[in-house]
Amino acid sequence: MDLNFSVFQEPRGVMRVLHLIFSISAFASVTEFGGSVTFNCKFDNKPSEYVYKYDYPFQLNLNDHELNPGNITECHPKVSIIGDFSSDARFFVATGVLALLFTLAIIFVYAKFDNMYKTNNQVPLIDFVITVIFAVLWLSSSAAWANGLSGLKHATDSNTIGWKGINDTCKKCPVSISAFSTLNISVVLGFLNFFLWAADLWFVYKETAWFQGNQGVITSGV
Prior knowledge:
With about 220 residues, the protein is α+β, with helices and mostly antiparallel strands.
């Protein structure tokens, strides 16, 4: 195939490579995450552990789970962890996947049809409009996912978990929660993607007829 890679020495080509890398990093950090809430109980002086695991798309549905089933002790606490944060997570991941697919497509256009890109006024305009759309999508999906992540942290917090069967003799079990560092990074990557796509607007705009026309007007005026 006759490919022209010189465009990747230009800012618009370099930015697309960055889009590719950070789009993958953003949605992969969400889809590959696995969290857990561990209940470290003790019944009849015997340790008993229950681990509730959750992952993407973060639909938490632990409802009145008994931590001491079948035990002869009178202590039978039940726990509930309820929360659906799938819409925010899926919006974020969908934005990342669509951004990845568009970036692959436009990279191919840059490399294979660079001459057409520079001579056909419509192609740069389409590139610019789609870049605007993805900048807006990254901003809105990152904000939504940041809100969803906040809700996920709240739902799995030891002070928020729902308990039943608790009294003076049957107390809550100690709870340990997995770290959210990967998901925190995903939010940062989301807003970083917004910045990269917004910054690329200038370089794509310079290829459009709007910019070229303005340059021509300025040159004629001089």
